[in-house]
Amino acid sequence: MVTVMKDGFLQSQSFLLFSFCLSFSFMISFVLYLGDGNSKISSVYINNTHGVDDDDFYDRNLALFEEEMDTRPKVSSLLSRLANYTNLTQGAKEHEEAESIGEKKKASKSPQMGTFMGVYLPCLQNIFGVILFLRLTWVVGTAGILQALCIVFICCCCTMLTAISMSAIATNGVVPAGGSYFMISRSLGPEFGGAVGLCFYLGTTFAGALYILGAVEILVYIAPKAAIFEGEGAAMLNNMRIYGTIFLLLMSLLVFVGVKYVNKLASIFLACVIVSIISIYVGALVSAFKEPHFPVCMLGNRTINSHDVKTTFLWKHFCQGPELNASCDEYFKANNFTEITGIPGLASGIIAENLWSSYLSKGDVLEKRSLSSSHISHPTSAHHPYVFSDITTSFTLLVGIFFPSVTGIMAGSNRSGDLKDAQRSIPIGTILAILTTSLVYLSNVVLFGACIEGVVLRDKFGDSVKGNLVVGTLAWPSPWVIVIGSFFSTCGAGLQSLTGAPRLLQAIAKDNIIPFLRVFGHGKANGEPTWALLLTALIAELGILIASLDLVAPILTMFFLMCYLFVNLACALQTLLRTPNWRPRFSYYHWTLSFLGMTICLALMFISSWYYAIVAMVIAGMIYKYIEYHGAEKEWGDGIRGLSLSAARYALLRLEEGPPHTKNWRPQVLVLLKLDEDAHVKSPRLLTFASQLKAGKGLTIVGTVVSGNFLQSYGEALAAEQTLKHLMDKERVKGFCQCIVAQKPREGISHMIQSSGLGGMKPNTVVMGWPHAWRQSDDPQTWKTFINTVRVTTAAHLALLVPKNISLFPSNSEPCTEGYIDVWWIVHDGGMLMLLPFLLRQHKVWRKCAMRIFTVAQMEDNSIQMKKDLATFLYHLRIEADVEVVEMHDSDISAYTYERTLMMEQRSQMLRQMRLSKSDREREAQLVKDRNSMLRLTSIGSDDDDDTDGGERDRMTWTKEKTSQYRATHSGCSTPEGFRDMLSIRDHSNVRRMHTAVKLNEVIVNKSHDARLVLLNMPGPPRNPDGDENYMEFLEVLTEGLERVLLVRGGGSEVITIYS
């Protein structure tokens, strides 16, 4: 019955390589006929533009930031837009644009699938397949139990290591639908992503062909007489092709009608698989007490085909006539017929015979070595009723045939868009599924070897047991449980492949990285990929025309192994690069495990079939070069682009192509140091802080400005550069020095900011010190230069870090044993406040410090919802921190605020109109400072005293009546005549700004007085230069009472993302 399949493999092999290459060329020619689609527009950064109410600009508590609210929104506004992550486009606007500009998106339901239903069961269904039921017994019988265990163990180790790498990538941010293609393309770039994505697509398509061929082969066991063509070899292969084509048409039609029907049938198919596996275990246990009746007929030690075992039948095949004296086969005359038990059972001890391998060549007879026979060197004939080996077997061949039975580990990541918590479900569900299937495979290898006779195991099609499915002979209560269950499971797996492959092709087409595939991004009105399904069915038909499960299996083995290889490469590369965005929530990974997985994948590719491996690599290389030279350019923040940052000329030229992606953003620091008269650095701790922030990664440029003319000061500039180099060596900072000679320091700093760096290696962050004792300084250019630098960095779209009290910052030899790094997130300006503590905690000095994030809620904000949204936002950022929302109510402006503002304006006018000597100026500054301190204590005491009655409170509140009364009562004071008008505050916007500074400072000091470091949004300088001195006063008030403060201004671009 099934033996007619054996002699047709030679013809099938000649057709194989032609079909394999034709599948790729046919795809290209087909899509060129269909035409191109529309291109897409991509954007890199989050669009921060949004409507801002006019009231926000005059918020009393945030007046310091009111001039920049259009580009730096309040945290509450940002969180309200990011709270519902399902409303974000796939990959967000900073990652990918939506399918088309202006397309209205339908409201999607919130994903609710958990680990068990969303990952574990789909992985089980995709891993268990046709090989388990049709070929695992044959693999055990041919390779022996020991080598079969080795094959299963190697393949399972490969998928386990790949699953670990995949879990790290999948938990490094939100992974939209797209599975392995999305992970590889976003980690290794569009070239690798497109090449491996198409290979994975071809592998999934050929997997559909494999499952269909398996279903047809099982159909032969169900209906042996269903053959259309009678005969052997090519006739049987033609039956496979015809039935396979019919099955393919029916399955494609079902997928086209609706995927919902496929999903509804998936649970039924999975139940069939589970029932079939359970029946194997039950049958193995039952066989220990009662042997199933499956006798095997033997001639000597040779296995006889037992379809029609009759005396006349055997005599006819071994003798030349019916007479007793007719000439007969010599082996037939010298040996006797015996009957052995096909299923000796678990307690029979047959496991000892099945431990060792028994590889055969094509045409060899299956023999039982433990049976005695007359060794007559008489050639066997094909017309003898023996059971023959249909294919030459070897260890490498069995690896290629078995490996498809462990694929399917990407089923969970492919459903990431439907999971409630993908970052938790994907690692747990995938690894548990691999452990479960590995245990099933390994235990089945031992059970098959311990229960079934060796010649029956090596009988691929069950000819020795009357055409029964070999694994079915062990099943309980009937072989039909396995036959029916395996048939439906293979049909279900084929439907899953025909469902997943078109969507994978559609995802590649929509990314627009391969122009000639654009047409496959379109489909029906409901989004079903019609054109992609048609191409998938045509390519699957090429696999069906091969008509041999044993020859199709190595093809998809190559494609899956190549996909797994690049998943491991992506994880290893990201780990070694240590990009700031690489923060997987799954922490049980290591680059050595990824490299081990790569090595196993590459070895298995060449072990199973070296020529298939070369063809698959050539196809992937062709796609890679095509995308590189003719494809659409994409910037996804991939690892290859991150690696190019450390390359030489080639990397610099590539970095010139555009700004770095958010995921590749790391602080490229320009540290501005000031030298004293003796050419010594005034604040060396600035460089120490920069080294703690950088941790030896990225670009560091240390610069200073020497006043004078370049021609006369060249030697002084060289000396200053040497000083900086010595300091860098001392602090172990790897970077570059830059010294600029200019007439004015502010001009030199501006030139340095404009000219530093080369190509893509330009600074994006400026670190400068706070002008110490600027109030007492006799040279106002000190703080004016500081404010000018703030304006220059803002104009250049660079981030700015200003450590205040830098001398109190810890050195590299003074690690903090405990404490907090507090982040006060008041306005959103790119995420610098989130990223900086993470980078600092990578250094040993700050490693043991915990992170706290505070944000400010106004009266109109829902503080509870803000805290919840902020916690969700940090969860998706993979940043661990305590969250607290501080409520700031709209209180009346206190007397202390008015008095502080008045003193500020009064001092400013005095210094502007009077030429005081240095001693007088210091005395005036000290007088103002002492007065401020007394007023501060009085104001704080009044605010904190809950028992104060309304009358006392009214004295500390400035109303119109109080203001008039104050002016009237103080008009005759002993103030000089020229300063009487200064008692009235000229600019009431200064009052609002001072109110913001005072209120924020009170809250910050109250919450963060014990913090090791406080990070705070730095307000922008006033647009009118006349208020520069007031701006310095606002910053002083804002940071009073804090030991270590880091003022932070973003550069206007996003530096942190929740996406992978």
UniProtKB/TrEMBL annotation:
It is found in: Cell membrane. Its main location: membrane. It catalyses: K(+)(in) + chloride(in) = K(+)(out) + chloride(out). It comes from the Eukaryota. It holds the Pfam family SLC12. GO terms for cellular component: plasma membrane; synapse. The chain crosses the membrane at residues 15-35, 114-138, 144-171, 192-222, 242-261, 268-289, 391-411, 432-457, 477-495, 531-549, 555-576, 588-605. Keywords: Cell membrane, Chloride, Glycoprotein, Ion transport, Membrane, Phosphoprotein, Potassium, Potassium transport, Symport, Transmembrane, Transmembrane helix, Transport. Residues 119-291, 388-670 form the Amino acid permease/ SLC12A domain. GO terms for molecular function: potassium:chloride symporter activity. One of its GO terms (biological process) is potassium ion homeostasis. It is a multi-pass membrane protein. InterPro entries: AA-permease/SLC12A_dom (IPR004841), KCL_cotranspt (IPR000076), SLC12_C (IPR018491), SLC12A_fam (IPR004842). Belongs to the SLC12A transporter family. K/Cl co-transporter subfamily. This is Solute carrier family 12 member 6. It comes from Amphiprion percula (Orange clownfish).
